[in-house]
Amino acid sequence: MQIYLVGGAVRDTLLGRPVLERDWVVVGATAEQMLSLGYTQVGKDFPVFLHPHSHEEYALARTERKSGRGYTGFVCHASPDVSLEEDLARRDLTINAMAMDDQGHIVDPYGGQSDLQLRQLRHVSPAFSEDPLRILRVARFAARYAELGFQVAPATNELMRSISASGELESLVPERIWKEMSRALMEPKPQCFFQVLATANALSGILPGLCDWPDTGDDLLQHAVTAQLPLACRYALLSLLSEQPERWAEHLKVPNEERQLAQLLRRQGSACLQADNAEDWLTVLEGCDALRRPERFAQFLACLPTLAVFHGQPAPAANAMQNWQMRLAHIKAVDVAPLLALGLKGKDLAQRIRSERLAILQSH
Ligand SMILES: Nc1ccn([C@@H]2O[C@H](COP(=O)(O)OP(=O)(O)OP(=O)(O)O)[C@@H](O)[C@H]2O)c(=O)n1
Ligand SMILES: [Mg+2]
């Protein structure tokens, strides 16, 4: 059997970028051989194994053909007679369809090295269409490598448009879309992900109601990248572009953390930017449930400078975030025990706590 490094690890090695994850392909072996060597099988549909020590993925060379819509109709053929070239042919992009042997020699039957130089994201063959998720992958690679000058090849663009027109994107499950999109949001140029999808007529299938990607979206995400905001903040800011953000959240099954921050930013963002007295401050802190959810509140605060830019408002003062954290600390310091000792309960107690918090905010 021969073992080759494949996919992203070869691509990133040739680009001189750090390799975070390594995938291997095994030619000329059977599943039984792999098991007898101590590998464990992971893929149910595909013969993929984990190395006994490194736990990296080793896949038997295979060919794939799709015979139906969605994820139902995959015919996978793995056997010792499938060649490396055949395995590479089923892959998405030429830059992902290269292999490296243990001597460091590159196997590159589809022009991956040339496309790395030309900075082209180009499909290997019409088999690209067999997995509509690849449209999202191409868009994500664009977001990652735009800084290096990578663009989608015109023919690949055409192909992606025809996939969009076929309605195949509808077969993508929300979890897979979210996985690609959330990764894309953390790339250096997340706006390119959405631009590429828009050009491929695939944007509205991902973010319902959004057909064209607005210029304001570019500025919004660029600002979020510059501020090094975490995923939840980036998603919350992105959702400002939607007239029906809950529709996005449903469509993508957005996890609660991101979804709730998006709701909070909408409900409390402007009020927080405008608040200038103790009553306003307390109302915002309450509205954000800041005492019980301090981490979420910190993320909310981190979004505010970008939100201000988005609304064409002056950026909050440099110490605005600290001031909010101080206000939170002040209301947290209000001691409930003596009020309980007074025998206060229910509504009376709540009112009394609120007025004490208000008083402490006013005194600072
Ligand atoms: N829908 C897909 C998913 C994966 N691949 C192939 O499988 C390899 C490994 O997939 P994955 O690890 O998901 O992507 P990488 O290219 O390694 O990129 P990343 O840096 O994001 O891991 C890819 O390079 C590509 O050759 C593919 O052709 N089509
Ligand atoms: Mg990989």
Automatic annotation (TrEMBL):
<keyword id="KW-0067">ATP-binding</keyword>
<keyword id="KW-0819">tRNA processing</keyword>
<feature type="domain" description="Poly A polymerase head">
    <location>
        <begin position="3"/>
        <end position="122"/>
    </location>
</feature>
<keyword id="KW-0808">Transferase</keyword>
<dbReference type="InterPro" id="IPR050124">
    <property type="entry name" value="tRNA_CCA-adding_enzyme"/>
</dbReference>
<keyword id="KW-0460">Magnesium</keyword>
<keyword id="KW-0479">Metal-binding</keyword>
<dbReference type="InterPro" id="IPR012006">
    <property type="entry name" value="CCA_bact"/>
</dbReference>
<keyword id="KW-0548">Nucleotidyltransferase</keyword>
<keyword id="KW-0694">RNA-binding</keyword>
<dbReference type="Pfam" id="PF01743">
    <property type="entry name" value="PolyA_pol"/>
</dbReference>
<feature type="domain" description="tRNA nucleotidyltransferase/poly(A) polymerase RNA and SrmB- binding">
    <location>
        <begin position="149"/>
        <end position="211"/>
    </location>
</feature>
<dbReference type="InterPro" id="IPR043519">
    <property type="entry name" value="NT_sf"/>
</dbReference>
<dbReference type="Pfam" id="PF12627">
    <property type="entry name" value="PolyA_pol_RNAbd"/>
</dbReference>
<keyword id="KW-0692">RNA repair</keyword>
<dbReference type="InterPro" id="IPR002646">
    <property type="entry name" value="PolA_pol_head_dom"/>
</dbReference>
<keyword id="KW-0547">Nucleotide-binding</keyword>
<comment type="similarity">
    <text>Belongs to the tRNA nucleotidyltransferase/poly(A) polymerase family.</text>
</comment>
<dbReference type="InterPro" id="IPR032828">
    <property type="entry name" value="PolyA_RNA-bd"/>
</dbReference>
<protein>
    <recommendedName>
        <fullName>CCA tRNA nucleotidyltransferase</fullName>
    </recommendedName>
</protein>
